[in-house]
Design goal:
By secondary structure, this protein is an alpha+beta fold. It has helices spanning about 10-30, 35-40, 65, 70-80, 165-170, 175-205, 205-230, 285-300, 340-350, 420-425, 535-545, and strands spanning about 45-50, 55-60, 90, 105-110, 115-125, 155-160, 160, 235-245, 250-260, 265-270, 315, 365-375, 380-385, 430-435, 450-455, 465-470, 490-495, 500, 505-510, 515-520. It is about 25% helix and about 25% strand.
C-alpha cells in the first residue's frame, strides 16, 4: 500500500520538530562536555538519519562534519545489520565511515519495536586521540597508524549503557583520559536524548506516518534545490585551488574541479587533482564528498533544508589515489580543514562562472596550534587548542565578508570562546586580541578581516607545541576580480628577545614560560573588482582600520 503524504502544514510542523530535536541535542552537548574544544569552541555536530541512512536533519554546527555523518551511519548499519534497542555504536576510522581520527562518532538506533526507524548521530572532535603527538594532529605522520587510535564501527554498549572495559580501554589510549571520557559520555547522553525525542514522536504518530513524512521532506528539499539550480547558466566550468604543502616536501598541491551544470543537474569531477601525498593533507572519501556538498549548499538559498534531498541533484566524481580520495593507510587527519577548504574553493571558483551573484570570496584557511604543558595553578596537565584570532570570511554580492568568521569548513560554526574563560582555565594571558589591519582581500565587497593575537604562555616549565594548518603562502582566494586575502603569519617571540616564524606543519616546538605567540591571521577574499567599491565604504575602511 502506498504511503500517505502529509499535508503541507503537518509536513512543516514535522520538519521543524526534527530541527528542534537536533538543536536540543546540541545544547545538551554544549552543557555537558568536559573539554575546551567542545564546550567553548563547539567543535561538534548533530544529525538524524532515517533507517536508510539518509540525512533527515542537522543542526547549525560544523558543515564538514554533517555531510560525512551519513557515511558513519551506513558503516554501522553494514557492520551491525540487526541493531537492538539500547545499542550504542562508536567509530572514527576514516576508512570505515569516519572523516579523520579526532572526530569520534556515536550512533544510536531508534527502534519501533523490532523495526529500525532512525539513527541518532553525534560527532565530536576530541582534545586528544593518542598517536605520536598531543592534540589529535601529527604533522610528521606518513601513515594513519601514527595519527592516533583507529576505531572501526564497534558496539560500545548495550541497554543504553557503555561497557566500562571498552570505555576504559579507549580513554587509556589518550593523554587526557578524564576529558575524553567525559566528552564521550556527553556524546552518548546527547544521542540518547535524540532517541527519546524520536521515540515520543514515533509513539504519537507511528513509524509509517513518519517515514512518509521523511520522504516528503526530502522530496521538497530536492525540488527546492533543483528550482534554484535550474536558474544557473549551463556549461562546463573549471576551478582550482592550491595547498601550500604537505609538510614533507610536496608544495603547491593542486585541487581541481571540473563542474558540469546541465538543467537541474550538477556534476563535480575532482579527478584532475594531484596524486595523494606523504603528509596528512590527504582526504578520506566521506570528507571529500562532504566538502563538495558544502560548496553546493553555500550557493543555495539559506531556506533550503540541507538534508539528503537537497543533494540529490549533485553527482561527485573522484579518483582513488588522489589528494581528495586517498588509499587506505594514508594519513588524513588535517583533511577536515585541508584539503576540504581547497575543495570548496575550487568548486566555488568554477561555479562563480555559472552563478556569479551567489559565489563568494574565499574564506580564510586554518592554522592551528596545540600546546601541551602543566598548569602550576592546578598542578595538572593540559592541552590547549588555538581557536582565537580566526581568519576572515569572503565577500559576496550582498556585502563585505564577516571578520574573524573562520574557514570554509566551519562557516562560523567554530567559536573562539571567551578570552577571560580561557585565561581562567589555562595558564595563558591574552595581551592583545583584535582585527588585523590590511588582512582583508580588496574588492567591490572586501573580505572580512583576520584576527591579531599576542598570547603569553604562563605554564609551569616548558611546553611542547605542534602546528597543523595551511595558508602562509596561499591566502583566501578573491572571486570575480576580487583580491586574495592576506596569508597567515605566526611568530613565536622568546622571552630573551629572539624570534622564530612558525611553519604550518611542525612538531616538537618548545615554548618556555614567558614566551609570546604573535598570530596574524589571514583575511577573506574580496568579491568583484576593487574599482567597484563604494566610496563611502572605502572611507569607512580607512577610519576603522587605518587602511
Amino acid at each position: 500500500m502506498p504511503r500517505m503524504t502529509p499535508d503541507p502544514i503537518a509536513l512543516a510542523v514535522l520538519e521543524n520538530r526534527f530541527r528542534a530535536i537536533v538543536e536540543e541535542m546540541g545544547e545538551a552537548m554544549l552543557r555537558t562536555t568536559y573539554s575546551q574544544i567542545l564546550n567553548s569552541s563547539r567543535d561538534f555536530s548533530i544529525a538524524l538519519c532515517d533507517s536508510a541512512c539518509r540525512l533527515v536533519a542537522q543542526a547549525d554546527h560544523i558543515p564538514v562534519h554533517v555531510g560525512a555523518m551519513p557515511f558513519a551511519a551506513r558503516a554501522v548499519a553494514d557492520a551491525f545489520p540487526d541493531p537492538r534497542e539500547g545499542d550504542i555504536f562508536l567509530l572514527n576510522d576514516p576508512y570505515h565511515g569516519g572523516s579523520h581520527l579526532p572526530d569520534l562518532t556515536i550512533v544510536v538506533p531508534v527502534m519501533e519495536g523490532a523495526t529500525l526507524r532512525f539513527w541518532s548521530v553525534v560527532r565530536a572532535h576530541q582534545t586528544d586521540i593518542g598517536g605520536a603527538t598531543h592534540g589529535g594532529y601529527n604533522p610528521g605522520a606518513t601513515e594513519i597508524w601514527q595519527e592516533g587510535l583507529r576505531i572501526p564501527p564497534i558496539r560500545l554498549g548495550e541497554g543504553r549503557t557503555p561497557r566500562p572495559d571498552l570505555l576504559h580501554m579507549l580513554v587509556t589510549n589518550t593523554r587526557l583520559p578524564r576529558e575524553v571520557r567525559g566528552d564521550m559520555l556527553a556524546m552518548v547522553g546527547a544521542a540518547h536524548l535524540g532517541e527519546r525525542r524520536l521515540l515520543a514522536l514515533l509513539d504519537k504518530q507511528g513509524g509509517e506516518t513518519l517515514a512518509a513524512g521523511v520522504d516528503a521532506i526530502l522530496d521538497h528539499a530536492e525540488a527546492h534545490a533543483r528550482r534554484i539550480l535550474g536558474g544557473w547558466a549551463d556549461g562546463v566550468f573549471e576551478g582550482s585551488a592550491f595547498l601550500d604543502d604537505d609538510g614533507h616536501g610536496a608544495e603547491d598541491i593542486l585541487i581541481h574541479a571540473r563542474v558540469t551544470k546541465q538543467g537541474e543537474r550538477l556534476t563535480v569531477d575532482l579527478s584532475g587533482s594531484a596524486p595523494q601525498v606523504v603528509g596528512f593533507v590527504n582526504s578520506s572519501y566521506p570528507n571529500m564528498w562532504s566538502a563538495v556538498a558544502m560548496a553546493f549548499a553555500y550557493l543555495l538559498d539559506p531556506e533550503v533544508a540541507k538534508n539528503a534531498g537537497a543533494f540529490r541533484p549533485l553527482t561527485v566524481i573522484a579518483k582513488e589515489g588522489t589528494i581528495v580520495w586517498a588509499r587506505p593507510g594514508a594519513p588524513v587527519t588535517l583533511c577536515t580543514s585541508h584539503c576540504s577548504n581547497e575543495i570548496v574553493e575550487a568548486v566555488v571558483k568554477a561555479l562563480a562562472q555559472s552563478c556569479p551573484e551567489r559565489a563568494m570570496g574565499g574564506w580564510g584557511r586554518r592554522f592551528r596550534v596545540a600546546i601541551q604543558g602543566r598548569d602550576r595553578r592546578r598542578d595538572r596537565a593540559f592541552v590547549w587548542h588555538l581557536f582565537h584570532a580566526r581568519p576572515g570570511g569572503g565577500g559576496s554580492a550582498r556585502g563585505d565578508g564577516w571578520s574573524t568568521a573562520g574557514e570554509w569548513h566551519s562557516a562560523g560554526g567554530l567559536k573562539f570562546g571567551s578570552v577571560e574563560m580561557a585565561e581562567t582555565r589555562f595558564p595563558l594571558f591574552f595581551r592583545h586580541h583584535e582585527f588585523r589591519p590590511g588582512s582583508a582581500g580588496d574588492g567591490t565587497h572586501r573580505g572580512g578581516y583576520g584576527g591579531a593575537l599576542e598570547l603569553v604562555v604562563e605554564s609551569d616549565g616548558p611546553c611542547r607545541a605542534n602546528t597543523a594548518g595551511d595558508g602562509v603562502r596561499h591566502g583566501a582566494a578573491g572571486m570575480l576580480g576580487g583580491e586574495d586575502g592576506a596569508p597567515h603569519h605566526y611568530v613565536l617571540k622568546r622571552a630573551d628577545g629572539s624570534e622564530r616564524v612558525l611553519k604550518t606543519k611542525e612538531v616538537g616546538i618548545t615554548i618556555a614560560p614567558g614566551d609570546t605567540l604573535h598570530v596574524q591571521a589571514g583575511g577573506g577574499g574580496g568579491w568583484g573588482p576593487p574599482s567597484g567599491r563604494d566610496v563611502d565604504a572605502r572611507a569607512r575602511d580607512i577610519v576603522s582600520m587605518g587602511e
